[in-house]
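User: Show me a protein chain along with its predicted structure.
Assistant: Here is one chain, sequence first, then structure tokens.
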Amino acid sequence: MSHDAANDNEPLTVAPAYAVVVDHLRRAIHLGRYAPGEKLPPERVFAPQLGVSRVTLREAIRVLEGEGYLTTRRGATGGVIVLGHDASREELRERVRERREEIVALLEFRLVNERLAAERAAARISPAALDALAETVDALRASESIGAFRQADSAFHLEIAAAADCELLRRAVEDARAAMFLPLDALEYEVMLSATVRGHVKVLDALRAGDGAAAARAMAAHLRATNRELDAILAGA
């Protein structure tokens, strides 16, 4: 045998429930599902939605507060609120440079998977999903903060991944998007906004036409434009 069979019988390490919730919420924030300044649902509503107790949810929130993702404000207008980065853009860029090799590999991984997702989606996407994509483009045009930009940008890419109708591919795209949280926030979204909108429109037009090859080309061109911006950061520009 190529592996030690005894390892198969080792006890499994099962994460506590609050740690599972921490991972879920951290990932949702990285994917832009909750933008900076946005409130999480009230505890009495959110805990049942997540399928956990209110005590478990509170513990998860305490952990994420300690990590700087959330803050709790008291009072009638308070609640659990998502925080933005407390680091400057230059500090974020330095963190990106420190992860240079990891991020280069991530960009290559993302290009391969999202190009395939766009190609597959062209033959499978529903009219409702196309309408949802158009709404994300409108939201992107209207974005006035990095949080709103990330939310609309992420929604566009994840909608296409879902339309590709391949669970492994959808998960791969989502994993890469979550891992891009820090690199994307290091970019000047104001500079990238118009180019990102144009890139999304070209992908959407190809999807509407049902042209898989064109959708793949448009997605690749869009991602390469983002990659060039990150290359400049990685080079210390």
